[in-house]
Queue: 2 jobs
Job 1
Amino acid sequence: MSLMLMAVQSLNGLQLGILLFLIAAGLTLVFGVMDFINLAHGVQYMAGAYFAVTAWLLTGNFMIAVILALAASLAFGLLLQWLVFRHLMGRDHLDQVLATFGVILTLNEAARMIWGPSPLSLPIPEALSGSIVLMPGLLYPVYRIGIIAAGLAVALLLWLLIARTRVGMLVRAGATHAPIVAALGINIDRLFAMVFGFGAMLAGFAGMMAAPILAVEPSMGDNLLILAFVVIVIGGIGSVRGAFLAALIIGFVDTMGRSFATDLMKLFLSPSAANDVGPALASMLIYILMAVVLFFRPAGLFPARGT
Amino acid sequence: MTSTRRRAGWLPLALFVVAAAWPMIAEMSGNPFWTVLASRMLIFAIAAISLDLILGYGAMVSFGQAGAVGIGAYSVGIAASHGLNEGLIVLPLAVLASGLFSLVTGFVAVRTRGVYFIMITLAFGQMIYFTATSLSAYGGDDGLTVWSRSTIFGSGILEDERVFYAFVLILLAAVWVLARLLVASPFGKVITAARQNEARVESLGFDIFAHRLAIYTISGAIAGLAGGLLANHAEFVSPAYMNWQRSGELIVMVVLGGMGTLFGPIAGALAYLGLEHVLAGFWQHWRIILGPLLILVVLRAPGGLGSFIKTRRT
């Protein structure tokens, strides 16, 4: 029974890790390539979820809604880049933090005004509803398996894009030698805008995937943003591979901690003390993990080359 | 040069006099609530000064200052829930607890630079936030009511809003003087010098990490004082104090007021909370005004609103 619970929680951890990766990938790429710290990245996750809900209300079809929302997320990311972020390139990190904080305040409030403060939800599509039997006695929702599969597919696609295509090569070159890439006749600003839009789309995609299982509400991106920061700090800022591994580690550790910390504490403490300490410890676990990693490897587990 | 210096010297004193007379002004104009609001502003001014010490002088962009504030608040709240109310014990306790937290997290955070520092302080702040939400014994998500304000030598004089205001004002003045002495001291000079040229300060034989860790700890301790006062002011403690958006607001106060001036952050705190109070009174969606305003200030006036009072940034 406990083994069964462990298996279910491992899958849940994997699924959280995949969602985190989708958000962290854009964040780490934008930072690695443009040296730009974007606190508003979580807002793009929120926007993706709201776009999906709105598109679903209009069309009634999940697949069409996702495709429309992806396009909207991309457009929205490019719009923000054009309106605000391109003016912040090369500026002090403090300026970037402040301005993107302003973007968060604005857009969270805008979401509250447009869609209201109460949570919305997106129904699970018919084809992916229900559960399947993974092992005798172990049922797992199909939709969650769908999230894991879609996330892994995107991760693979991202790797192919960065490691095997001409655009990916330019992005990698731009990350370390932006002026030289520009001198070779590449429009570096357009390249950066593209990376930015793509990152926004990935975050939006994560929001859409999460929409049917989590509540779609204003500020929904804020907490995930912090987790994504922990992921890219542990993985090494700028490294997509590091972000992938760190996201899986964080997703796994966080989920396991929340499920088992209280039981584990009961081995050492009285049940009532364990009920108090367990949840507190569980919520601190990933930050302690981050502190330990950074204490020994200040640049993260897989530092990107050139930094 | 001398004229700006003299102006910068007189302005705080003049404002202090106005601040001291404020409860009287509030009562004469028939708005005693102004005193309560002003107490809150002054408490946040203390927190803003604490942040300016590391942000303005050390160039350490901490996004976890609200965590230190919250620990101070919870120290007072938890002590009160166990029946310990004496302000001369619980306020130093708040200072100590936050200082200790900053010392421990500083061992990891201060070793890092730039974006890493931002993200790590952010993460530690969130850690405290989530810890507080899961402290079911002390209210968890819902927060903790502090049934009575701290006593001073056993007397409940702080229950009077005017006395409480005076108490906070005196502490703010003390913190301001202390911070000024600190940044003018040889210790403070090392911190500012290291901001400008780390390699040279290092080669002069100073241990930059130890200096930064010390100022980070002091900053956290002062933030803890602000937290302890905040718990007394609201007579309520809640995890919301530690939310990372509060840290962001503190940064906004410091930067809008003019960082690295100690005085600017006080003005920034007053301006920010005043603006919040006025805008929130008009419209529940006031953040939709504040957000774009903030973006515009960053893009158009990087020096902050206080830059016209004092442009010196040593």
Note: The beta strands of chain A are 131-135, 138-141.
Job 2
Amino acid sequence: MNKLLEIRNLSKSYNTLDGEIKAIDNINLDVYEGDFIAIVGTSGCGKSSLLNILAGLDNNFEGIYKFKKDITFSYMLQTDCLFNWLNIFDNCKIGLDIKKDKDPKKIDKINELLKIYNLEEFKNKKPSSLSGGMKQRVALIRTLATNPDILLLDEPFSALDYQTRLAISNDVYKMIKKEKKTVIMVTHDISEAISLANKIIVLSKRPCTVKNIYEVKLTGATNPIENRKAKEFSTYYETIWKDLDVNVT
Amino acid sequence: MSPNQKKYLNKKKKEKILVIFFQISIIVFLIGIWEFLATKGYINEFIFSKPSNILKTIINLYKNFNLINHIFTTLYEVIIAFVLGIFLGFLIALLLYSFKLLAKIIEPFLTMLNSLPKVALGPIIIIWVGANLKSIIVMALLINLIISIITIYNGFIQTDKNKIKLLESFNANKLDIIKKLVIPNSLVTIISSLKLNISMSLIGVIMGEFLVSKSGIGYLIIYGTQIFNLNIVMSGVIILIIISYILYKIISIIENKLLK
């Protein structure tokens, strides 16, 4: 199998005036081509910090991580982060603009994706005329526009209501499988992780370490909505729930 | 159109007419009662002036004292101060945003300057800059610049951190982030600072004209006071009200155009 990313002994501490806080403690992980990895942890456990480091936004950490040579990645955040003064097309193109990438194939790709997701008629409209779900689709197209090998998704559906969330995660899943992308997704939603991912990394509470890794195998797996009906689903759910050890105190 | 929609539109239209009617009524009533009280001798015409005299004075000023020239002097000064204020305010705010440490160091000084009544610096300005138009511009700049810097800078720092993160994940440099995100994102704040700035510029210019000037509306008001001709003073004030209202409206129109 083709290894795209290797993380070794990664640790991260935050320095504050009140002292040092350890957020990530010695994480090891390998990511292979075609993987859909879900990183699950309770909120505030440091899973977003991990993604920040991988995206190259935070250079203050210990340990190493290594992408395979010439691997590109793209980052999708919790909020859609659309620029309300740009139209939908220009929003999708912003990554290419910044990278000064004028590849006509990539522009065609944006148009194609807009068409597939029924957003073509909104191409010249501003984001304010779209619903939350449509905005998140635009955000995904923007993420895919630079043609990355790996997608880093940071709770990409958490701002959506439940129904839209299911529909969009279905879309995203299809889009990602069709484009044959490798995904690392951070989420606190256990069922989202089981329905989307083929590998789930459960992180402990802060400072987070890898508590368990599960290979997800569902009978009759097709798409995220159907996957929720698989008979193994509830077993995975209970096991991971116990791992997370959520107490509200 | 459904009957309900028609009813709604009618109601809104009536409301608008009512508002305009009362606004005009208030003006007519105030002018009327002022004229009446002064003519009947209930208030001293010499001290309070009266609308008909003010109108005569304005016509007289226009015919014999180059009123248009005075208005243009004031407008000219306001526009220079306004453009300089916005331009410098924007540049300094950008500088502070780009160098966070500088912003931290400067902040208490800005606050101090902002709360200082700038008119207190008037005599110093006259001595340093000279008794001329430059002094008036400097006075107006002192009043509009600090507030412009603070307003625009606050717009800049309110940029969504996630959006900055997004651009950084595309390997954007600082200039990209400022050009593609921070400035367009702060457009609304920058435009609303125009409104504030135009009022501040007018205040500054009139203050400057009070201190040192040979023409302008501020000069007319001071001149009227010195020869104790309240008709001239009141005329100056009325013209100022009209000028400030027109300037404010122009900025509002520009604002609507830009924000569309």
Note: Chain B has two domains: 3-43, 53-259.
